[in-house]
Prior knowledge:
68% of the residues lie in helices and 6% in strands. It folds into two domains: 39-203, no CATH class; 218-412, no CATH class. It has a four-stranded mixed β-sheet with strand order 2-1-3-4, with helices on one face. The chain has a two-stranded antiparallel ribbon with strand order 5-6. It has 17 helices and six strands. The protein has helices at residues 2-15, 17-44, 61-73, 79-92, 94-108, 119-124, 139-149, 166-192, 221-234, 236-250, 253-259, 264-293, 301-329, 333-350, 361-367, 371-383, 388-412, and strands at 51-57, 112-116, 131-135, 158-161, 209-210, 219-220. The relative contact order is 0.11. It is globular.
Amino acid sequence: MLGTFLKKQILLMVRNRQEIIVLLIMPFVLISILGFALGNLLNRGEIDLNAKLAVVHHGDEEEDLAKIKKETAEWQMPAEQQRAMEEALRAMAPLSLLKKEVFPPLESEGLLKVEYISGDEAEKRKKDFAAILEIPEHFTYDLLHYFLFEEGEKPKLSLTVREGNEISSQMIEDILLQVEKQYAIFRAIGKTGGEGAPLQLTDAPMEGSFETVSKSEPIDAFTYYTAGMGVMFALYIASNMASYALREKRSNVFHRIMLADVKRGAYLFGIFASGAMLAFIQIMILFGLSFFVYKVKWPDLASFFLVSAFLSLAVGSISVLLTSVNYKLNSENASNLFSSIIVSIFAFLGGSYFPVSQISETLQNLGSYTPNGAAFSGYLKILQGYGISEISPSLLALGIFTAIIFCIGIFLFPGRRNEA
């Protein structure tokens, strides 16, 4: 039963190209952007930049998204595939990508301060900013249309930089250049159907490092963000598993499983094992490719596999908890809340965006109890050359978290009488 269940979940995941993009491609997008933007600056010791960037959007991204969604609706795809397409388009919307994924880590680090203002205000305050980024009207629609249909000319952004702020301006230009390269990769993936996509994201040198608390060798920016993004995006597996499970209930697949005399505990264990296995596969693919793309090497493979396994089990337990809450509420609110808000909070506390110890030791201690934070701490210690004894606190935290969350998930799962 477990083998069949796992096979079904893997097939569902593989058939959904949009989720593959989110779970495998997006980590590389953020690693590239953050690694190049922060890596070069950290290597120069330019930490306290606080570059000011004004963003002027002359259009309405929601209107652009509605227009492109209307066009894709004419493709007459199945409802679930159409929903996935709309989610992917929203994730790729340039202004939303910049506001939600690219700029926040840089603002938290104190490297960038972004203001969203009107064109008139930008003209009056142009001396207040290192650069002004102007997004033309209908830019989101033109970009997504160009990506999907390969028609028309490639839309362009306008970046005006102020003299006397060379370092700040260069950082902003580097960020936008990396974003542009990632869209080019998305377009290449779309043209090849997701196969044969280039692995070498850029030819620029991979420089920069984060100074760690210990006296060990510093970890370069790409290694830091590979581990940080890896543990963060593994959490999204849990919300996907819970959403799939609720769809099974609504399509009566769950009821047919119960009629086959499968116990509820066995079903939840299948959710747990499938979530853990898919998370482990995702981690292996991400870190495996990072070896070729970013030259990230693990000094102790045994410890690496151990931390990855414990993190995967934690993801499996979260899958069970979210599934139980979804079933109890008969909605995807729990998994949506987890993927949209809680993962970001965990990522911040766990240090995926930047070393949170620079802000507060209390936040650092709090982050060590999150599954991604504990795994991230373990990964960093392995990369710094520590042995199994030094990563044991991380393994213990992950083990306790897994046991507690799994038990809560089992307890919350509705019985036959309470099932909606």
